[in-house]
Amino acid sequence: MAILPENYSNLDLTISVPGFSSSPLSDEGSGGGREQLKLDMNRLPSSEDDEELSHGGSAPPRKKLRLTREQSRLLEDSFRQNHTLNPKQKEALAKHLMLRPRQIEVWFQNRRARSKLKQTEMECEYLKRWFGSLTEQNHRLHREVEELRAMKVGSPTVTSASSLTMCPRCERVTTSAGPSMAVMAVPAKKTFTPQECEH
DNA sequence: TTTGTCAATAGGACGA
DNA sequence: TCGTCCTATTGACAAA
Hints:
Elements: H1 39-42, H2 47-54, H3 69-81, H4 87-97, H5 101-151, E1 164-166, E2 172-175, E3 180-183
Antiparallel strand pairs: 1-2, 2-3
The protein binds a DNA duplex through residues 25, 27, 30-31, 33-34, 61-67, 84, 87, 102-103, 105-107, 109-110, 112-114, 116.
């Protein structure tokens, strides 16, 4: 816990979230250059500001808000605790950070999106590697089949490569006539236990 | 000038 | 109907 200063320790952050490591996307590392944003960007807008926005009027050009390091840090801390906020938490965080609740909401939405993107990229990498290893394994097995085909003449047990079968449960390759000849590699996540197989 | 980052917006889906 | 979420997109800004 302890993601907020003492005076905000009454914040009820109880939403459970699947375990997530701290963010790789924090602003900290991206060069101190952009540093602090101007105060007027961070202040809680007055009701006139809201009205100005909602009424459109002459629609002033959108200014880019940059969160301060401290604001980012606190938001990251909160996000590490909970990936979503209830209205009370949002309100409290907004007050504490001198931002509008809507800005807190938007930050969490964007943060969740970035998390998901990161996760998807990692899964993509994993699948790429898996594909690579399966391709390699496939080539190896093809070579093995060719070798077996070459050996078939004179062998009483192996009459043709097409007589090779693979047990769908244990993934052992066997001839229709005899004992297992080779064990296929399986994805790292899967562990083979002899009890799974009837062989 | 180009590129990357990120706050903000739009709009649709969903549950209470 | 309202509040919240997600996704796609926009636009400001800083760094290369």
